């Protein structure tokens, strides 16, 4: 008997321990799950709270109806009319599931082999009521229309396929209009001087005046005195704010979040099934493709800063080489005296011979995670701002000669690699009006030209720094310093020959800085005008983006009239900070860099997918600053079909090899287990995203690259399987067709 009691007691203790252990394990599992960066809308289908809320929502809809019976009939009718079959092509009655039928007349390399498709049949079911579905579709339709309007106004890119669907929804015929396309400088012909000035246009005699932060162009001074500007696309702030407020409301609406979250889940799952069914067929296509493989398909580093475009070993070797050759050359000036290179290093109490990549200390690491201030300090070799000024600046005692030489060496490496291109960013700060002339003179004087490089201008959002030091009276002056010289060179190129030549090599503007810094200012109709912004506080991200976009739109229209190249707006966006950054970029930017925060908003992520807005992602950069590599949404975005490319950001801080872009691809391929087709698809995206000329893109991607889907892909040049292209195109059309069906059922 005592033995039985003891056994029972031990059993109770074991049960208690087991129960406690299970709770601890459950807690650990819960914490582990919480550590992963997932959408806040990932909830179980049987979540009682969401189930209760949906029931209450449906009850409210039915209670407000005049007739519950009619409402139920409408819901039933809606379910029956929206059938989730493969949508119809806009140009043919042929189903997209038989895409090879309507391109059968094309060359053999463009045909799509038979492959297994994932098809959903049956009645409509999307997790929201039919009434909500109709409301969601109207919202998504209007959002796409907003994006299309702002892209066309500024001569930036909006894909043909969603444009066709939008016209179809409006009951209009779609007409191709190439007048909205951006203009890029064509490649230099053999023997042509990239710095020639004998072909610059004559003075137009226009008059310029900045008003409320936007440059207005007048035919002459008389028109300026009467305030009668030329008919250019000047942005209306009230319209912009109305569109912005609509998008703000859209991304916060529950039914829209539910619908887009489910569609994104479907896209991810659908790709995984497609991959499981067709991976070997895609590989077979690539194996049968002669000559071309991942190594010799073109790829572009779509996001790289010129001041860090070299790796740390390259910089170290250059410092040692310059000391060996120029030890007695005067290279630096202080208040007391001018210093030779030897004296400068003596002042810093070091000798170049003793330097290593470790003592150079330009590589980002654990110490820079979530510390953008420490990351910026990494631009100072050995922690010395004097060396940054000497080796990584364009405006210094030796007129940026060392920096120009380093960039030329990086360019030579790209030419040697042949199939890699880069788009380095050079800085214009807006601190003084002569920055443009100094930068362009440096560019032309050092003859910085590389056929594998195109250039961009980055504008750091550091008005608060300049204002606190009294360099600027107000924000309007910063905008004037950034944009007025470019307008002047556009109107009278012969008076600004260096700047006019330099602008031919520029493809876009970038807006850069630490996005996690919150300004505390909400952009609205009550916001101070730029000339009234005299406080030391920095304007918000949206405030910067609005005025940059507004000036670029006017500038592009003016330059296109004169047959000059235009500029794209390609800001850093979504690396950190508020979702409003991504919403603003959706309205104003041709493409963005980073985009990590899209994973926090299913609505914006789905809109970026529908509009195929390119995103230059830099997982190695994010790994050292904001997000661990394994948690990067790169693979998730790729599977869903967002248009992403890989970029290096800052090779000096994040990479080790002579080919940092290949290093970026190699690490992504290993961590995310990418196939050859995946990597070639990302490489193709990078060429589409970048600012190289139409002629070069046609040479690298095929003559039909402007067309969407498999008909626009030349596998002989891109090494992307036609099966993959057909899958992407059909899936894209499927989602757009759902919106069209939702609008149709609403009518």
TrEMBL record:
Coiled coil: none
Source taxon at top rank: Eukaryota
Pfam families: AMP_deaminase (PF19326)
SUPFAM superfamilies associated with the record: Metallo-dependent hydrolases
Biological process terms in GO annotation: AMP metabolic process; IMP salvage
Gene Ontology molecular function: any one: AMP deaminase activity
Keywords noted in UniProt: Hydrolase, Metal-binding, Nucleotide metabolism, Zinc
Keyword Zinc listed: yes
Keyword set includes Transferase: no
Pathway(s) per entry: Purine metabolism; IMP biosynthesis via salvage pathway; IMP from AMP: step 1/1
GO cellular component: cytosol
EC number: 3.5.4.6
InterPro entries for this protein: A/AMP_deam_AS, AMPD, Metal_Hydrolase
Catalytic activity: AMP + H2O + H(+) = IMP + NH4(+)
Cofactor entry: Zn(2+)
Protein family membership: Belongs to the metallo-dependent hydrolases superfamily. Adenosine and AMP deaminases family.
Subunit structure: Homotetramer.
Protein name: AMP deaminase
Species per Swiss-Prot/TrEMBL record: Odobenus rosmarus divergens (Pacific walrus)
Lineage: Eukaryota, Metazoa, Chordata, Craniata, Vertebrata
């Amino acid at each position: 008997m005592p033995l039985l009691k003891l056994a029972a007691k031990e059993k109770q203790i074991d049960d208690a321990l087991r129960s406690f252990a299970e709770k601890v394990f459950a807690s650990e599992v819960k914490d582990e799950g919480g550590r992963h960066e997932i959408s806040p809308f990932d909830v179980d289908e049987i979540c009682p709270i969401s189930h209760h809320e949906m029931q209450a929502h449906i009850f409210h809809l039915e209670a407000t109806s005049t007739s519950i019976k009619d409402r139920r009939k409408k819901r039933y009718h809606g379910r029956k009319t929206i059938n989730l079959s493969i949508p119809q092509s806009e140009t043919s009655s042929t189903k997209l599931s038989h895409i090879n039928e309507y391109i059968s007349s094309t060359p053999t390399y463009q045909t799509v082999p038979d492959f297994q498709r994932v098809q959903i049949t049956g009645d409509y079911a999307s997790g929201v009521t039919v009434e909500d579905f109709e409301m969601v579709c109207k919202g998504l339709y209007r959002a796409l229309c907003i994006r299309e309007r702002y892209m066309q106004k500024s001569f930036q890119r909006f894909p043909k396929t969603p444009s066709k669907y939008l016209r179809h929804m409006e009951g209009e015929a779609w007409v191709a209009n190439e007048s909205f396309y951006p203009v890029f400088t064509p490649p230099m012909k053999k023997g042509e001087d990239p710095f020639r000035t004998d072909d610059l246009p004559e003075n137009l005699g226009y008059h310029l005046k900045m008003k409320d932060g936007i440059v207005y162009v007048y035919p002459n001074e008389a028109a300026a005195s009467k305030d009668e500007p030329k008919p250019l696309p000047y942005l209306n702030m009230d319209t912009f704010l109305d569109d912005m407020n609509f998008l703000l409301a859209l991304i916060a609406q529950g039914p829209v979040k539910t619908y887009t979250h489910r569609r994104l889940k479907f896209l991810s799952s659908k790709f995984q099934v497609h991959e499981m069914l067709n991976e070997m067929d895609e590989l077979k296509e690539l194996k049968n493709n002669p000559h071309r493989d991942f190594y010799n398909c073109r790829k572009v580093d779509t996001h790289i800063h010129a001041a860090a475009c070299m790796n740390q070993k390259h910089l170290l070797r250059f410092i040692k080489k310059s000391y060996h050759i120029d030890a007695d050359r005067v290279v630096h000036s202080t208040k007391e005296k001018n210093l030779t290179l030897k004296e400068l290093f003596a002042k810093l109490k070091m000798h170049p011979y003793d330097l290593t990549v470790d003592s150079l200390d330009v590589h980002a690491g654990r110490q820079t995670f979530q510390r953008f201030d420490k990351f910026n300090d990494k631009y100072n070799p050995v922690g010395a701002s004097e060396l940054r000024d000497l080796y990584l600046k364009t405006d210094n005692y030796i007129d940026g000669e060392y920096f120009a030489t380093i960039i030329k060496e990086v360019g030579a490496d790209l030419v040697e690699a042949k199939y890699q291109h880069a788009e380095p960013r050079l800085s214009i700060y807006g601190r003084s009006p002569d920055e443009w002339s100094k930068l362009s003179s440096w560019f032309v004087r050092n003859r910085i030209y590389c056929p594998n490089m195109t250039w961009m201008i980055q504008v750091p959002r550091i008005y608060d720094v300049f204002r606190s030091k009294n360099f600027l009276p107000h924000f309007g002056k910063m905008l004037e310093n950034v944009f007025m010289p470019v307008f002047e060179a556009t109107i009278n190129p012969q008076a600004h020959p260096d700047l006019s030549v330099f602008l031919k090599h520029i493809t876009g503007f970038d807006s850069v800085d630490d996005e996690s810094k919150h300004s505390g200012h909400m952009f609205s109709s009550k916001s101070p005008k730029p000339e009234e912004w005299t406080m030391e506080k920095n304007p918000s991200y949206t405030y910067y983006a609005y005025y940059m976009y507004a000036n670029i739109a006017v500038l592009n229209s003016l330059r296109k009239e004169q047959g000059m190249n235009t500029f794209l707006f390609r800001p850093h966006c979504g690396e950190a900070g508020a979702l409003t950054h991504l919403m603003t970029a959706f309205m104003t930017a041709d493409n963005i860099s980073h985009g990590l925060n899209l994973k926090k908003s299913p609505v914006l992520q789905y809109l970026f997918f529908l509009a195929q807005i390119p995103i230059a992602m830099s997982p190695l950069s994010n790994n050292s600053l904001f997000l661990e590599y394994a948690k990067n949404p790169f693979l998730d975005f790729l599977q869903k079909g967002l248009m992403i490319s890989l970029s290096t950001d800052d090779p000096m801080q994040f990479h080790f090899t002579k080919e940092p872009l290949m290093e970026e691809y190699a690490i992504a391929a290993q961590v995310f287990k990418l196939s050859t087709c995946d990597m070639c698809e990302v490489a193709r995206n990078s060429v589409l995203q970048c600012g190289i000329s139409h002629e070069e893109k046609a040479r690298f991607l095929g003559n039909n690259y402007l067309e969407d889907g498999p008909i626009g892909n030349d596998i002989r040049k891109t090494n992307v399987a036609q099966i993959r292209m057909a899958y992407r195109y059909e899936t894209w059309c499927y989602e757009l067709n759902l919106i069209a069906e939702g609008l149709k059922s609403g009518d």
